[in-house]
Structure formats: structure tokens, C-alpha cells
Design a protein that fits this description.
By secondary structure, the protein is α/β, with parallel strands linked by helices. It has helices spanning 5-8, 11-20, 35-40, 199-202, 218-222, 227-243; strands at 22-24, 46-48, 69-71, 92-94, 115-117, 138-140, 161-163, 184-186, 208-210, 257-258. It has two domains: 20-104, Leucine-rich repeat, LRR (right-handed beta-alpha superhelix) (Alpha-Beta Horseshoe), CATH 3.80.10.10; 123-259, Alpha-Beta Horseshoe (Leucine-rich repeat, LRR (right-handed beta-alpha superhelix)), CATH 3.80.10. A ten-stranded parallel beta sheet has the order 1-2-3-4-5-6-7-8-9-10. The longest helix has 17 residues, at 227-243. It starts with a helix and ends with a strand. Residues 1-7 and 247-256 have low confidence and may be disordered. One of its GO terms (cellular component) is cytoplasm. Keywords: Leucine-rich repeat, Repeat.
Length: 259
């Protein structure tokens, strides 16, 4: 794969990559993956190629069998290779700010994946196989072109945070009520008229819901079964933030519900 790869790294750099397992080439103006990275094979645990000019991920990515963190944000990648599912050690995958239009079904093979962030792309749907990601804790699909989430998402039994802001989602699947580990649900700027009726009752760990910029009203939300219990959890979280003297961002404390 030719990039300025033979000039990308000298022997000392390659030796450091091999010993640390970390290959960091942010802002390097790369158009293709450096050949040297694939030569390292099992040594690479973290690969960060953020903010380059890469259009595709080569099939040779499957050589990196011990890769745990793949960070490819802010490139111009249009698709993910099918053999990405062979990266069985992968725990973190970040593809924010690319041009990806769909995800391969093989994504569901990443059984150790804990964090998947693919915001600011061109996704119109998610594969049903996403439900096979039983270790997934964070899913960020904000700022895409999604109109719905698959029913299978309810099988992501470890999911704690779901971010799907700035899409065109009209309805949530009832299966989200199965996400009993869910703590934060962010759905700002969609087309939601209602929420699954059992959401607050079934998702007993839910502390934060963001629904700003949707047709649903606060009155509708407050009438949902389980609202009082949700409100108690929200206030408890808020009080803990105050008690801990947390640093307040420019937006202030997250009060846990935004409609």
C-alpha cells in the first residue's frame, strides 16, 4: 500500500511502535495506511490515524490480530471492510467524521467491542447484527441520516450510553426497554412523537434522557409509567454532582432531562 509509508517512520520509530504497541500518526497527511504498520502485525494494540486523508481501510487490517483500539476519526473513509470482524480483540472503534454510508454485517463479530463511535457520517441504517455486540457499553451514531434503530439493538445487554442526536429517527423500537444497564439516552433533534411506554419502568438505571428538538412534549414524558422513579434517580445524580464539587462546563450541570 503506497503512502509516503517508507518515509513515514524510521527504524527508531518502528522499534518504539513495536515495544509500546501504540501507533499514533494523527495529522500526518496520509492518504493510505503505512506498510510498516501491517509488518508489525500482532504487536499493534492501538492504531490512531485521526485527521488524515484516507479513503479506505485496506483488507490487510486483519493482520493486526491483537488490535484493541482503532481510531480513524476525521478522514474521508466511505466504507468499512468486511474482514473488520476478524479483529477479535477490538474494544474501541472510532470512525467519527468520515463519509461512511453503511456498516457491514460482519461488525457483529466484534464480540469484545465496548465502544463504537461513528458520528458525523452518512449512515441511513444500522445492521441487525449490531445486536450481537453484547459487550458494547457506548454507541454513538449521532449526526447521521438514520430514520430508525434496529429492533436487535435491544440485545446489546451491556449498553450504558446511547447517543443518536441529530438524525431523523421517528420511533424507537420497543426492544430498547430491554437495555436494563442503560444510564444515558441522548436523542436530541430527531422526529420522535413518543417513547416506548415501558422505557422508564424497565430501564431502572436510566438517569439521563435528552429529547430537545423533538415533537414529544414534557407533558407526554411526565405521564409515562415510571416517571417518578426516573425523576428520583435524576435528582440523586444531580445532587451527587453538586456534592462532589464537579467542574461545571460552559453548559452547566447536566440535569438529566432535556425536552
Amino acid at each position: 500500500m503506497g503512502c509516503s509509508s517508507s518515509k513515514t517512520a524510521d527504524a527508531g520509530t518502528i522499534s518504539r511502535w513495536r515495544s509500546t504497541g501504540i501507533v499514533a500518526l494523527r495529522d500526518s497527511k496520509l492518504k493510505t495506511f503505512p506498510d510498516e504498520v501491517f509488518d508489525l502485525e500482532k504487536s499493534v494494540r492501538t492504531l490512531d490515524l485521526t485527521h488524515n486523508k484516507m479513503v479506505e481501510i485496506p483488507m490487510e487490517i486483519n493482520k493486526l490480530t491483537n488490535l484493541q483500539r482503532l481510531i480513524l476519526a476525521n478522514n474521508i473513509i466511505e466504507r468499512l471492510p468486511m474482514n473488520l470482524g476478524l479483529l477479535q480483540s477490538l474494544k474501541v472503534a472510532t470512525f467519527d467524521g468520515n463519509r461512511i454510508t453503511n456498516l457491514p454485517d460482519e461488525l457483529g463479530q466484534l464480540v469484545k467491542l465496548e465502544r463504537l463511535s461513528i458520528s458525523a457520517n452518512l449512515l441511513t441504517s444500522l445492521p441487525d447484527t449490531i445486536g450481537s455486540l453484547r459487550s458494547l457499553v457506548l454507541l454513538n451514531v449521532s449526526n447521521n441520516k438514520l430514520k430508525f434503530l434496529p429492533e436487535s439493538i435491544g440485545s446489546c445487554c451491556s449498553l450504558e450510553e446511547l447517543q443518536a442526536n441529530d438524525n431523523s429517527i421517528e420511533e424507537l423500537p420497543g426492544s430498547v426497554c430491554n437495555l436494563i444497564q442503560l444510564k444515558s439516552l441522548c436523542l436530541n433533534n430527531n422526529n420522535l412523537n413518543q417513547m416506548p411506554s415501558n422505557l422508564l419502568r424497565e430501564c431502572k438505571g436510566l438517569q439521563n434522557i435528552a429529547l430537545h428538538g423533538n415533537p414529544i412534549t414534557m407533558d407526554q414524558f411526565q405521564q409515562m409509567e415510571g416517571f417518578q422513579e426516573f425523576e428520583a434517580r435524576r435528582k440523586m445524580k444531580f445532587d451527587k454532582q453538586i456534592d462532589s464539587n464537579v467542574i461545571i462546563s460552559s453548559k452547566g450541570l447536566d440535569e438529566g432531562v432535556d425536552l
